[in-house]
Amino acid sequence: MLKSDENSIIWARSSLCANTNCVEVALVDHQVLVRSSKNIAGPILRFDFPEWMAFLSAVRGGEFDLP
Q1: Residue 42 half-sphere exposure, CB side, CA atoms within 13 Å?
Q2: What secondary structure, in 3-state letters, does the chain show?
Q3: In this predicted structure, which of 8-12, 13-17, 30-34, 61-65 has the lowest mean pLDDT?
Q4: Nearest CA to 33 among 3, 58, 9?
Q5: What is the model's pTM?
Q6: CA–CA separation, 43 and 8 (whole Å)
Q7: Facing residues of 45 across strands?
Q8: C-alpha torsion angle, residues 20, 30, 2, 7 (rounded to 10)
Q9: Among 23, 42, 47, 67, which residue has the least CB neighbours within 10 Å?
């Protein structure tokens, strides 16, 4: 993705997010992009769809829950 294309990305955040300390996601070119809404000019994580689905499965399965 070219830097100039980043302005056209449509970012979404959870409806449960009440402030600017949220995670935003976007779908671009068969990738899931993730960034912090607190620092929108900061780094963007990129995942292919199978990686993203594995992450969501782990979250839903409680793999990241604190003891």
Answers
A1: 10
A2: CCHHHHHHCCCEECCCCCCCCCEEEEEECCEEEEEECCCCCCCCEEEEHHHHHHHHHHHHCCCCCCC
A3: 13-17
A4: 9
A5: 0.77
A6: 17
A7: 34
A8: -40
A9: 67
Counted residue by residue, the chain has a size of 67
Instruction: Identify the band that residue 55 occupies on the pLDDT scale cut at 50, 70 and 90.
Output: very high
Side chain identity, residue 50: P
Structure tokens at 41: 């000019």
Place of tokens 């300390």: 21
Non-local CB neighbours of 29 within 8 Å, separated by 6+ positions: 1
